[in-house]
Amino acid sequence: MSGDADIVVIGGGTMGAMITWRLSARGFDVTCLEAHGIAHSRSAVAGDSRLFRRSYRGTTPLSPVLAAAEEQWTMLNAEAGEEVFVQNGGLYLGQADGLYLRELRDCCERDGLDYVMLTPTEIRRRYPQHRVGDHEAALLEPTAGFIRTERAVHSAVRVARANGASVVVNSAVLEIEETTSGVRVILQNGEIRAGRAVIAAGVGSSPLLPEDLRESLHIRRIFLSWFPVVDPEAYRPSNFPIFVHIDGNYTAYGAPSLDGSMFKATLDDRGAPVEDFPDHRYTMTAQEIADSEVTAARFFNGIHPQVSRQECLADLYTADRQAIVGRVPGASRTHVATGFSGTGFKMSAGVGELLARSIEEDADDVLPDFWSPARFGPEAGHQLAPQ
């Protein structure tokens, strides 16, 4: 394959699709290269849905990114002509006097987000699907919701193609070289030259990055689980908001039933680091299943607490669990968006918009400082890929 483009985006998954969409919307001639297929079953896109919420814990100022993401998800709904982003609310349950709900409430106050605090009695009346103790409370975020993952990625690709982008599957990238006038992207079956390149290939990004960035990244395995429901109506999106429930050592997050037979409930942050991802990693372990079933029985009414479906996938994590987004250190025409550490999907449309704006304006300061690739190494003296 040979040809020319303004920008080559490497990776057609979550980030690659959104970046391609937002660059194409600005009139750039974009070629997106996907090593496998769009939203293939072993990508980090799998699993039907991801949570979207504006409230968050911690001190990292994510509010502008999440605000941009909400705007872009709403725009994708309109441009694609289908509801990939559903705002059915978010219910966050925890100890009434605990740090978790206090941090979420502080975030809502700081960022001007609407929220409602619920007592145990109010939770049981409004959301009887949840089992809560008298020591607990909940924060309801009305504008939170979920994104239909596979449909969102396919929709972004479809809109990008309508904007003139070229999206090519089964096109693995081996190497990137910067030239005096742009970049040379070497494939298994040829090469393509462009003005710039964006590396957004998920776990496949590492081999294309400088050593300092590669050393800051590691693969973690993430699992998702679903449970059958007794009353499908109770777990429909209109009746069952997305949720996070933290009570001591018991933690879970999840989404409503999208197929009318089971809903998603997954143990929070239980993914383990892995060196590689052989076939057996795509199945939950017996202990993971047992822990999930105990937690589901503790947290929910009207379900069968047996895992009826599971998905295992991989993501790149950084040492500080903040993403790497921006110009690659030592490069002038190569950018990266990776290392989202299991939290990237909800903000991916916003990442695509901000990175596209950064490239359009040739301004690195459009992007958050806490995502700067330069924080993991010196800014000069790197090659972009193994030579």
From TrEMBL:
Gene3D superfamilies: D-Amino Acid Oxidase, subunit A, domain 2, FAD/NAD(P)-binding domain. Its cofactor is FAD. Keywords: FAD, Flavoprotein, Oxidoreductase. It comes from Brevibacterium celere. This is Sarcosine oxidase. NCBIfam families: PRK11259.1. It comes from the Bacteria. InterPro entries: FAD-dep_OxRdtase, FAD/NAD-bd_sf, MTOX. GO terms for molecular function: flavin adenine dinucleotide binding; sarcosine oxidase activity. Residues 6-357 form the FAD dependent oxidoreductase domain. PANTHER family: FAD DEPENDENT OXIDOREDUCTASE DOMAIN-CONTAINING PROTEIN, PEROXISOMAL SARCOSINE OXIDASE.
